[in-house]
Design goal:
- The chain contains 14 helices and 10 strands.
- The strands form 3 sheets. Strands 3, 4, 5, 6, 9 and 10 form a 6-stranded mixed sheet that branches.
- Strand 1, helix 2 and strand 2 form a beta-alpha-beta unit.
- Helix 8 packs antiparallel against helix 9 and helix 9 runs antiparallel to helix 10.
- The longest helix has 19 residues.
- The N and C termini lie far apart (58 Å).
Length: 357
């Protein structure tokens, strides 16, 4: 109830028709929705997100579907660009990628988010459906669906679901239950292990999370499928969080060979090098992060290929005794990213040390 109005208001000016499926709300959601020009349908919850998603798609009357969850909002930043790019792509594709910004932390901050893309614009007549009860994903069906590899421009979907820790814990408990149920199926998809790792990570169960992500990677390889970049990102993020960096460098090099344009992997490599006192090598790695940049092809931590990597370059310069160069480096960062606080903090500390020395 606290999210649905904002989500509807963000999307309604840009669509011809709107369908909302309620899976059993016990709050004021239905009453709020009825205030808007939306066709509201009830769906008896059966522990299957894909079934609910497919039910919604069956009631769509337009040629194209744009779907949002209740904790998301559509932000059209450039109406002409949004319409032009997705209309042009729609001539040759059945599913289009839309950038998604997932915020974390107590307040909405454009410097504190993960960025990725997902197929959120779907052609109704292409036979696309969702599968998997939780963390559902597109089933391409029997025919070859035409997927456009590049996201539309001029609009993003903003996701606020990770900003409420209590709500996240509640959702995570539900997701773990559903994922464990899926895991009991013979020949279950190794994505299930990955999603279990994510849920345990969010709950602070780092050991469980690591075991699940390792299982996911192993099972992808056993099935002769390329393990997803996401799984490698999570594995090395867990090693960073737990301080288990002893043999991390050797492994992450292998992951980087598979995904050489993934800024997050290079960023984690630089952090491992820094933690082991390899400051010159780490500086080179963080410089490479800036060269790689941040691609919406992957789930990317905002800053891993820009201001966060640049800040760590400054930290390396300090550790190498190049303090004047570090000061100039931090000053540039403060000018370019005034909302990012660490460089300003380092500047203050260096100036205080200079005055005291």
């Amino acid at each position: 109830a606290e999210n649905v109005a904002a989500g509807l208001e963000s999307a309604l000016p840009h669509v011809d028709d709107a369908v909302l499926v309620d899976t059993g709300s016990t709050d004021e959601t239905p009453a709020i929705v009825r205030k808007y020009p939306v066709r509201l349908y009830a769906f008896a919850w059966n522990d299957d997100f894909a079934a609910a998603r497919n039910f919604a798609m069956e009631h769509v009357r337009t040629e194209w579907i744009l779907w949002l969850d209740a904790d998301e909002q559509l932000a059209v930043l450039n109406q002409a660009q949004w319409q032009q790019t997705w209309t042009a792509k729609a001539r040759q594709a059945d599913a289009l990628l839309v950038p998604i910004h997932s915020y974390y932390g107590p307040t909405v901050d454009e410097l504190r988010m993960h960025v990725h893309t997902a197929y959120r614009l779907l052609r109704k007549g292409a036979g696309l459906r969702y599968k998997q009860a939780v963390h559902e994903h597109l089933d391409m069906g029997t025919g070859p669906a035409r997927l456009d590899p590049d996201p539309v421009q001029g609009a993003v979907i903003r996701h606020y679901g990770y900003m409420d820790p209590a709500r996240c814990q509640e959702k995570s408990a539900r997701n773990v239950r559903l994922l464990e149920k899926e895991r009991e199926r013979p020949g279950y998809d190794p994505w299930i292990d990955y999603h279990l790792a994510v849920e345990h990570y969010r709950r602070g169960d780092f050991r469980e999370a690591y075991e699940h992500v390792q299982t996911s990677l192993r099972r992808f390889l056993e099935l002769r499928r390329l393990p997803p970049a996401l799984a490698y990102k999570l594995k090395y993020e867990l090693l960073l969080v737990t301080g288990s960096t002893d043999r991390a460098l050797e492994g992450i090099e292998l992951a980087i060979r598979l995904y050489p344009d993934y800024a997050d992997l290079h960023y984690y490599k630089g952090l491992f090098q820094y933690a082991q006192g390899q400051y010159a090598e780490a500086a080179q790695t963080f410089a490479h992060c800036l060269k790689v940049g941040e691609s919406t092809r992957y789930l990317t931590l905002r800053g891993a290929g820009s201001f966060m990597a640049a800040h760590m370059m400054g930290m390396c310069l300090e550790a190498l005794g190049q303090r004047d160069e570090a000061v100039r480096h931090y000053e540039r960062l403060v000018r370019e990213f005034p909302g990012f606080e660490p460089p300003a903090e380092r500047l203050a500390a260096l100036r205080q040390a200079k005055e005291g020395g």
